[in-house]
């Protein structure tokens, strides 16, 4: 698979900077209506393109992810433990992200008028969702609503939790029927998934122009002040990632293994560097496996199951970033997220991270699904896209650190079990 070139992200950054400059000048010389009428539509087109592929991308990749859990069943005990470990650490990562974003409030500080205006200009869908959130169904009904009455209608409406529910059930069913029947279906969706990822790459070619257009219009209308919170946002994501490593991973390694922390981090450093520089946990996979086997003493049997599965379904860094980004964008738009909306973020971002492929920038695409589920305007993505590359590098590094932590923990549990049995 061809990964987007690094230069693309430099172009996006240039798009952002030019957008800021044109926005400021436009604001000063009074050509904001021109920007809004003639420039902003390019940005809107970009956002629509991203929205276009979310449903098929998430459906196909979740379906394949679940169907690949067939091996999990075969591996019985290890498989169950691994999936449990992955889901728990991911949920924990999002909780850290949400906690920090609520505590440090990176998106606050804009005036009430700016926020209201933003919502009027960019958030018509959001306003509708807020309306329906006011007459929100009970918790019981919210849970019942996850079960789609008609999955085709859920897809047409973009009801993400219903789509996810159906994809999971479909994937599980595929593991239960004979291989000659399930094989072609899985292959078909593998093709769909591959094509969707290719579309992501094509859409990303337009990203610099989309970002330019959206930022020029937004700064033209609201002034440069709207970018202030962006630095704080990046800072919160990075702090969250560091805390997740320090709190979650080191604690797990200390409790479950005899490996010294220094040896662990030294052992996986090459893999971390590859993940950081390529922004891709899939690209780093061969090195991650080698590091786990040669430097950390994980058996080939354990590493060859846990690490590829992790590179596909375990994305703690991505999930944490999605938690922070969702709260950040909501704060920028002056929306208050209720506890149940935040719990929905934990659920959706955990599932979105299963549905995200380990390639550059995909976390940003599946973020739209998290935003959509809680009714946050997708246009907010324009604000964070300019800094996405650097955060993608950091989160990919955390993603493979999480996979490696799981590998050493499960490997030592297995060793202890074998020793006890002898
Ligand atoms: N680039 C990330 C990874 O490969 C996924 C993402 O968050 O975009 O792990």
What's this, in brief?
With 422 residues, the protein is an all-alpha fold. The protein has helices at 6-29, 32-67, 70-74, 76-104, 112-122, 124-134, 139-144, 151-157, 160-176, 179-222, 228-256, 261-267, 269-278, 281-296, 300-313, 316-332, 339-354, 362-374, 381-385, 388-421. Helix 2 packs across helix 18 (362-374), helix 4 (76-104) packs antiparallel against helix 11 (228-256) and helix 11 (228-256) packs parallel to helix 20 (388-421).
What does this structure look like?
- It is a single chain.
- It is globular, with a radius of gyration of 22 Å.
- With 422 residues, it is mostly helical.
- It has 20 helices and no strands.
- The protein has a single domain (6-415), classed as Proton glutamate symport protein, CATH 1.10.3860.10.
- Helix 1 (6-29) runs parallel beside helix 10 (179-222), helix 4 (76-104) crosses helix 15 (300-313) and helix 16 (316-332) packs antiparallel against helix 17.
- The longest helix is centred in the middle third of the chain and has 44 residues, at 179-222.
- The site of aspartic acid (ASP) has 16 residues, from helix 18 and helix 20.
């Amino acid at each position: 698979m061809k990964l987007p070139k690094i230069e693309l992200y430099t172009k996006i950054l240039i798009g952002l900077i030019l957008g800021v400059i044109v926005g400021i000048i436009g604001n000063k010389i009074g050509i904001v209506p021109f920007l809004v009428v003639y420039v902003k539509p390019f940005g809107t087109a970009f956002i629509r393109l991203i929205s276009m592929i979310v449903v098929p991308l998430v459906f196909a990749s979740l379906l394949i992810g679940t169907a690949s859990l067939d091996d999990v069943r075969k591996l019985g005990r290890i498989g169950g433990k691994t999936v449990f470990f992955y889901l728990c650490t991911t949920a924990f990562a999002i909780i850290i992200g949400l906690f920090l974003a609520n505590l440090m409030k990176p998106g606050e500080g804009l005036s009430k008028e700016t926020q209201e205006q933003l919502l009027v200009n960019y958030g018509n869908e959001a306003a509708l969702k807020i309306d329906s959130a006011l007459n929100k169904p009970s918790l019981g009904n919210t849970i019942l609503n996850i079960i789609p009455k008609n999955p085709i209608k859920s897809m047409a409406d973009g009801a993400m939790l219903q789509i996810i529910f159906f994809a999971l059930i479909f994937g599980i069913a595929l593991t239960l029927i004979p291989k000659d029947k399930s094989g072609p279906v899985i292959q078909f969706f593998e093709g769909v998934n591959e094509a969707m990822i290719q579309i992501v790459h094509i859409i990303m070619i337009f990203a610099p122009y989309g970002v330019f257009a959206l930022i020029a219009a937004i700064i033209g209308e609201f002034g440069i002040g709207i970018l202030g919170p962006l630095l704080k946002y990046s800072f919160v994501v990075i702090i969250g990632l560091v805390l997740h490593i320090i709190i979650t991973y080191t604690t797990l390694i200390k409790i479950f293994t005899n490996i010294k922390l220094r040896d662990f981090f030294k052992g996986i450093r090459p893999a971390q560097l590859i993940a950081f520089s390529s922004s891709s946990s899939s690209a780093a996979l061969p090195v991650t496996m080698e590091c786990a086997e040669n430097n950390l003493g994980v058996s080939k049997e354990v590493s060859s199951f846990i690490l590829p599965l992790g590179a596909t379904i375990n994305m703690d860094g991505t999930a944490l970033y999605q938690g922070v980004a969702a709260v950040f964008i909501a704060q920028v738009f002056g929306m208050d997220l209720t506890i149940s909306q935040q719990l929905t973020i934990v659920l959706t971002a955990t599932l979105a991270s299963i549905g995200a492929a380990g390639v550059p920038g995909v976390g940003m695409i599946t973020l739209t699904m998290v935003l959509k589920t809680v009714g946050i305007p997708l246009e907010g993505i324009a604000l964070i896209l300019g800094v996405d590359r650097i955060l993608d590098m950091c989160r990919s590094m955390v993603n493979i650190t999480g996979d490696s932590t799981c590998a050493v923990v499960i490997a030592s549990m297995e060793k202890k079990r074998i020793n006890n049995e002898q």
